[in-house]
Amino acid sequence: MKSASKAVLALALLGAASFVHAAPNCVVKLKGNDAMQFDLKTATVSASCPKITIELTHTGKMAAQVMGHNVVVSQTADMAAINTAGMKAGAAAGYVAKGDAKVIAATPVIGGGASTRTSFAGSKLKAGGDYSFFCSFPGHSALMKGTLVVTK
């Protein structure tokens, strides 16, 4: 009887582990530092999420005016245009042009020791699409960028 109970418990735990593993990823947590690096080069989210949240923690010490970071999400092909428009928009706009339809989401620019977040509808992404996340602070996107993999 004991071995039957153990077998049932083991099967239940395996089933629960499968369920947890199958849960969609709706939050991306990134860290950026004073060396202009994100801690992730690839992040995965699910287009089935009602809401996707991007969280950024600046682990460095430098001020936002000197070494500020943000996270912008867009189609990969739109990165250069978003960066160009962001530089024209300037620091007051967080280096993201207001109303830029190519921007799927963007956090504010933050300095060392600060954290920020933004959320957007998962329906703005399509599974298998070509998406990136990057920092639009002038010159940072050359190093501070990654691939956003979107699953169903």
Explained architecture:
The chain is α/β, with parallel strands linked by helices. It has one domain: Cupredoxins -  blue copper proteins (Immunoglobulin-like, Sandwich), CATH 2.60.40.420. It is 24% helix and 30% strand. The chain is built from three helices and eight strands. It has helices at 2-22, 64-67, 79-89, and strands spanning 27-32, 42-46, 51-58, 72-75, 103-106, 115-121, 131-134, 145-151. It has a five-stranded mixed sheet, with no helix packed on it.
Summarize the structure.
24% of the residues lie in helices and 30% in strands. With 152 residues, it is of the alpha/beta class. About 10% of the residues have low confidence.
Chain-wise SSE layout:
Layout: H1 2-22, E1 27-32, E2 42-46, E3 51-58, H2 64-67, E4 72-75, H3 79-89, E5 103-106, E6 115-121, E7 131-134, E8 145-151
Parallel strand pairs: 1-3, 2-8
Antiparallel strand pairs: 3-6, 4-5, 4-7, 7-8
